[in-house]
Design goal:
The chain has about 200 residues and is α/β, with parallel strands linked by helices. About 35% of the residues lie in helices and about 20% in strands.
Length: about 200
Amino acid sequence: MGSSPTWSTVCSFRKYVRMSIERIYMYIVKGTSSSDGKKETAEWIIEKDIRTVLDVGAGSGTYAKLLEDNFIMVEKIDAIEIWEPYIEYNDLRSKYSNVFSDDVRNWNDFNYDLVILGDVLEHMTKEEAVSVWSRVSQMAKHAIISIPIINYPQGHEHGNPYEEHVKEDWSTDEVLKTFAGIINHEEYSVVGVFYATF
């Protein structure tokens, strides 16, 4: 008889299975972000009495659906999506007040109650992410970052070169040290969700 697996081995295997399932789901639903932290995000949005939202990297419209599913009424929810095919494929114009086909690295209007950077910052260099965050923190009232906090390589997906993880090794400590204004965060098996107030 062989020895029983260690708890560490079991935990590593569970993490691998969860990541595999998430990748399959994200492959089927183009532009989808991790489901981790969405309940807490909805609660935080309600608590902060958010009226205007900018969803950066809208993908499949995860955050518009989050607001709808939780009966969160806002005056306006806009989206920036860099990959034009996602706008059409995921019918983003029916989910958002305004949809801008643009690159957030070139964007300069973050005058919203809340800016959501959901699974976005890992798709650029650290320097680019800091530059985006600097502009967000000067204009927005609040921001949310959802980002993988483990080594999470990813290449082009669905023909979309912007799906590649340029910086694939963010950690919780690095996020907290890099982005000023974070007042709370939650860690999950793959992603961390970071809440900021400016």
